[in-house]
Amino acid sequence: MAVSADTRRWFLLNASPDVHAQIARLPSARANEVRYVPVEGIALTDAELDHTLGIALLREAGALHLYATSSVLGVLDHDSRVLPVTRAFACVDVTILELDGLPAPLRYQDGSTSGLSIQAVEVAGDPPRFASEFVPGHTVALVVHDGATGGTCAFVPGCGALDAALLARLATADLVVLDGTFFTDDELQRHGIGQRTAMQMGHLPIGGPNGTLAAFAGLPCRHKVYSHINNTNLVLLEDSLERQAVERAGILVGRDGMEFQI
Q1: CA-based, 20 to 30 A from 51: which of 16, 19, 85, 252?
Q2: pLDDT digits over 47-80, tens only?
Q3: Predicted confidence (pLDDT) per residue in 101-115, tens digit
């Protein structure tokens, strides 16, 4: 996911292994420059490989700025080693996001303000399997606020529980992009491709008595989107009952290329 105040300079929310294909779709005023990367910074929800390997792939940018909690940065530095590898090729600066702290301004590479700010909100979840220790802040939601329009976007690609406090926070956003990884808790087990349940992996499923669907549908947000959808999730099939249930609830199923203005 990428956010921008001017549709030319972009901040990524996580950096996946297919980051090059993703940023190739972004409009940029300097797209013809050699090795120009239209990414002003990268904010992270966690240190999982599918959210962070793209950092190393962007090393040709020469300079990168990361926004993350100290817990996430610690895993990237000492466990996955994504930070040391990237720093061998590029200058990497960091802004530490305090849990539920004051919003941090998202700044352009030249130090000027973008008008956007970001805040980390702790959510339930598991640290990466390769993390050497459990430290609070390993999984967060990112809340981006646009000072010019007053719009707010909440990005929650990993979520192990939707408690009252988190729902109240999400209810204030214009756009919420929520964890839609699995539809059922036993999805991987039923397909014979995994032994752990969705909840054991830190993902609250969409369906079922304890799923996210009813609570998410009840939020007053202007736009509600499920993302981070696993290829076993039947909501990806347009004629499935699961897809119909989500759409009846007024929720969109995320796809590449979606755009929202808030």
Answers
A1: 252
A2: 999 999 999 999 988 899 999 999 999 999 999 9
A3: 999 999 999 999 999
Start-to-end Cα distance in the chain:
15
Domain boundaries, the chain: 1-118, 158-256
Distance of CA 227 to the CA centre of its chain: 9
User: Which CATH code is given to the segment(s) 1-118?
Assistant: 3.60.15.10
3-state secondary structure the chain: CEECCCCCCEEEECCCCCHHHHHCCCCCCCCCCCCCCCEEEEECCCCCHHHHHHHHHCHHHCEEEEEECHHHHHHHHHCCCHHHHHHCCCEEEEEECCECCCCEEEECCCCCEEEEEEEEEECCCCCCCCCCCCCCCCCEEEEEEECCCCCEEEEECCCCCCCHHHHHHHCCCCEEEEECCCCCCCHHHHCCCCCCCCHHHCCCCCCCCCCCHHHHHCCCCCEEEEECCCCCCHHHCCCCHHHHHHHHCCCEECCCCCCCCC
